[in-house]
Design goal:
By secondary structure, this protein is mainly α. The chain has five helices and no strands. The protein is elongated.
Length: 82
Amino acid sequence: MMKYEDEEELADKTPCAGVRADLKMCLLESDCCKKEGKTPRECLKRTDGSVPAECHALRTTFFECKRSILDNRTRFRGRKGY
């Protein structure tokens, strides 16, 4: 994972922006996008091994982060993700 540090600034300041950027870069670097020329959305739906397991883990992390925005318990626990 690329996990953005304090000195690196993302243009996107929304919650879960770091996870979104990591997922995007992971998908764009995968064989599915590079060699087969598919879109990242199509690659996320594939399970044939052309997309690394790290990308699928980042997808789950991104989902949990977006879900935690809507969850009222995050007032106490904080957002998931980074």
